[in-house]
Amino acid sequence: MTNTAETKKGFSLHRVLLSMFLASIGIILVFLIIALMPRTVSLLQTNAVDRTKETVLQGVKSLDLFVDNLLSSLNYAATLLPNDIDGEDTAWQERLSFMDLSREDISALALFDKDGALIYSTGGQAALPPEQVNALPFFQKALERQGTALFFSLPHVQNLFAGQRRYVLSVSRSVEYMQDGRISTGVMLMDVEYRSLRSLIESIPLGQSGYVYLLDETNRLVSHPYEQRIDSGLFYEDIAAVAKNLVGVTKDTVGGKERVLITATVNKTRWRMVGVAYFDEITTLESAFIRIFSVVLVGAALLAFAFAALSSHFVTRPITAVESSMQKVIKGNLNVTLNEGGFREIRSVSSAFNHMLTRIRALMDQIVVEQETKRLYELNALQAQINPHFLYNTLDSIIWMEERGRGKEAITMVSALAKLFRIAISKGKSNIQVEEELEHVRNYLIIQKMRFKDKFAYTLEATEESLKESTVKLIVQPIVENCINHAIDQISGDELHIDIRAFTDASNLYFTVRDDGVGIAPEQLPDLLMQSPGTSGIGLKNVHERITLTYGSAYGLSVESLENDYTLVTITLPRGKGAQV
After folding, report:
1. 170 phi, psi to nearest 5 deg
2. Facing residues of 264 across strands?
3. Which residues partner with 184 through β-bridges?
């Protein structure tokens, strides 16, 4: 009786385990709240500021690229000046005009002599006499700095040219040119539309109310989203306070709201970019994270209490079953499924374990799909490749024609090259109409025909039905390119003939490219579609893979050839279907 009574007076194991567990949880919670929470909040706030700073620095990089682009454009314009500025050759003026027309952000390009007289301008006639031009900052600064050093002005309304009042940034540099047999010094001016700079600045995200503005080296505003409100006195920016901090992070308070000011320098111009972010906006996610973390912490404590209360009753046997199943998974068997029975804790563990295995299997399947999709994207990216050798040779031919006074031929080649690029880009679309695909091939052949003269002839035919069909873009031109690159140099004295056709039947769309070159050896035909592309371009293999991955293995390329006679490449696509990417 005594032993039984003493046993009853003792604490049960269940109560002891539960009490110890609750005490442990309480200590952990107190430690997290007192010791870790303030530091966590501080780290999260610091992280928010660092992310905002990184955004501003990325903006600085974008502005550096913008400035570098302007410098390169002006320096390139300076290289277009001829040996004799008064000579009959006006090609340099046409190139400057083409450069102006091809760039939406360029308002005008102009060349002045050392006295301020206008030699040439894409913006029209001069509206100011030379003595006034000579006194303008862009002119004086350019001559003072000499060489390739450039001067950037503040945004202003340009009144140099008659009939123009555009809001621009002016970039200028001194240049040297030959006139009357002597080296003369002048100034090259490029006016850039201010809206191009403003759109770049306004694209930098700093929360809902944050913004970015620019200061020059003397702390004058270059660009500010509230510029008009500042000029009218409706908005105040404490530029004097910002001027004390050349680079780095500072804070201020405006209207009761704390702001973070991040200042960084734009390298080439010595301008400074100032990012203004409101602290409550950039820390919104961090506050939400703290609330969620607190809820999760409390929820975890409650679940732990329930788990402790029930796990003290005969948990060894079901846990052993769980452990046995886990060992099977460790050995590589992912098809294990636990029986979700028994105690609630074990059911919870079993359910989580089964969910985990289901998720693992799904992720493994997802990885396979993603790798296949990645391969498809890589193949689609090949359609944007432009053969550097072809581009170099084309540009070299244009320059050669221009230098020999064959301007009309040069314009024809430039026009064909521009159309070639336009269709290749095609606003990011993966598929285009057959009519556009054949137009792309036609422009390529125009360029190659002008380069190779009478070495080849071609025909290009298509039925009315085929022209309305849709096709993966840039699949015919690589085949034609292979005809020219591999056949034109191997035939002696004869003219290569290339025949290109597009037609349809009830269910398919066909392209055929036939040439009467040297053909392909029989032993090479089986492996032809397995070869990687060489220096000649995209290659048959990649065109074939793009088609099969887009439409299926029933479609793609087939090659027929008779050595020393002909080669025929047939492209088969389904009708009425575009690319599925």
Report:
1. -105, 130
2. 273
3. 177
Helix (H, G, I), strand (E, B) or coil at 332: coil
Q: Which residues pair with 213 in a beta bridge?
A: 274
What is the crossing angle of helices 284-311 and 13-31, to 10°? Answer: 170
3-state secondary structure labels for all residues of 155-199: CEECCCECCCCCEEEEEEEEEEEEECCEEEEEEEEEEEEHHHHHH
């452990």: which residue's tokens? Answer: 323
Q: Are 174 and 145 in contact (CB under 8 A)?
A: yes
Residue by residue, DSSP assigns 431-452 as EEEHHHHHHHHHHHHHHHHHHH
Domains of the chain: 80-190 (3.30.450.20), 197-284 (3.30.450.20), 385-574 (3.30.565.10)
126 secondary structure, DSSP code: B
- How confident is the model at residue 579, as a pLDDT? 44
Q: How confident is the model at residue 13 (pLDDT cuts 50, 70, 90)?
A: very low
Residues 6+ apart with CB under 8 A from 519: 561, 562, 563, 564, 565, 566, 567
pTM over 0.70: no
> What band does 5 get if pLDDT is binned at 50, 70 and 90?
very low
pLDDT at 581: 41
Question: Comparing C-alpha atoms, which of 169, 207, 186, 157 is closest to residue 78?
Answer: 186
Whether residue 386 is predicted with pLDDT greater than 70 in this model: the reply is: no
Handedness of CA 139, 143, 147, 150 (dihedral sign): negative
- Is the pLDDT at 67 greater than 70? The verdict is yes
Give the pLDDT confidence of 121-175 residue by residue, as tens digits. Answer: 988 888 899 999 999 988 988 888 877 667 888 888 888 888 778 889 889 999 9
What values do phi and psi take at 553, rounded to 5?
-70, -10
Rounded Cα–Cα distance for residues 192 and 164 (Å): 13
Asked if 229 and 78 count as a contact pair (C-beta separation under 8 A), the reply is no
Closest residue by Cα to residue 250 from 280, 227, 277: 277
Find out whether 485 and 455 touch, Cβ atoms under 8 Å. no
pLDDT-based confidence at 559, cuts 50/70/90? very high
- Which residues are within 8 A (CB) of 129 and not within 5 positions of it... i.e. 6 or more apart? 116
- Rounded Cα distance between 201 and 445, Å, is 43
What is the distance between the alpha carbons of residues 439 and 433, in angstroms, rounded to a whole number?
10
Residue 364 scores a pLDDT above 90:
no
Instruction: Give long-range contacts, CB 8 A cutoff, 24+ apart: 547-551.
Output: 547/472, 547/475, 547/571, 547/573, 549/375, 549/376, 549/379, 550/376, 550/472, 550/579, 550/580, 550/581, 551/577
If pLDDT is split at 50, 70 and 90, which confidence band does 381 have?
low
Closest CA to 307 of 276, 336, 346, 269: 346
DSSP code for 218: T
| pLDDT(384) > 60 | no
Confidence (pLDDT) at 289: 67
Using CA atoms, how far apart are residues 276 and 207, in angstroms rounded to an integer? 9
Nearest CA among 553, 555, 558, 552 for reference residue 570 = 558
